[in-house]
Design goal:
Blueprint (H helix, E strand, L loop, with lengths): L4 E2 L5 H10 L7 E9 L5 E6 L2 E8 L7 E4 L5 E5 L5 E5 L8 E7 L6 E6 L9 E9 L6 E6 L12 E4 L3 E2 L3 E4 L1 E9 L6 E10 L3 E10 L2 E10 L4 E4 L3 E8 L6 E6 L2 E8 L15 E8 L1
Parallel strand pairs: 1-9, 2-8, 10-17
Antiparallel strand pairs: 2-5, 3-4, 3-6, 6-7, 8-9, 10-13, 10-14, 11-12, 11-15, 15-16, 17-18, 18-19, 20-23, 21-22
Length: about 290
Amino acid sequence: MRFKTWAWGLSVAAATLLAACGGGGDSSTAQMRLLNASIGYAALDMSVDSTTVNSAVAYAGVGSYADVKTSATGTEIQSNSVGSTLASSTPTLAAGSHYAMIAYGSAGSLQTTLLQEDQEAPASGKSKLLVLNLAPDAGSMDVYVTGADETLDTASTVAAGIAAGSGSGYVSLNSGTFRVRLTAAGSKSDVRLDIPSITLPSAGVSTLVLTGSAGGVLVNGIQLIQQGATTNFPNTTARARLVAAVGGSALVSGSVGQTALMPTSVARRSATTRPSRPARPTCRSTSTAS
């Protein structure tokens, strides 16, 4: 199972200081909770050192912090319905620190990654945003943060080329409500997720977790406020493809709702008589609102 701790900007010295000050626990414990970012599981449990610490965490939900001994961190993510172990790890935790164990991936291939939730807060009127690309089928993605009605024509990325399994690092932005769009790296027209309204809190820190969807390269989003709650941003579009594989000179067209998949066209042109053979498929794909 892939395992990585996301803790940009938090030095070992800072972690030691947190432990010395007793932030979030005593000198031998850390605080950890489960974030369910897998569309393949409606509810997940988390067990640490053979004790269930989070139970029935729904998709896009996050559990409550539990005290975890830094000397006994063996962690299992389990199916809430049957209790089987889906992923396991033994993370290294700093005493006094806060963590979110993120479970993601499809049914049958659950993975985990660890997010440290002790990033220093920005000044009033500012907000920090981290984007984690945990959608392996989507490839690398660019992030745009704009006003609600702005196009991407002249927009600049706030983070570019975030590969699957990696993150943007914390980006400092103005606080407020914005539109966030994720596109394929280098292609403004290939939108993988459009969030029309997301709030970045003043003097706050949040993480946008991108996970796989049923739409292949399209992704879902979950905003996690540091040491706070989650907000679910499911993808409201799907991609459909029409394959025209009829013989003769048949005219083919198709649409989903008001979205044309293929304008009227000739699926196969043949003016001569010859032995029959499979028609050459004509394909066109597009995105459509669900």
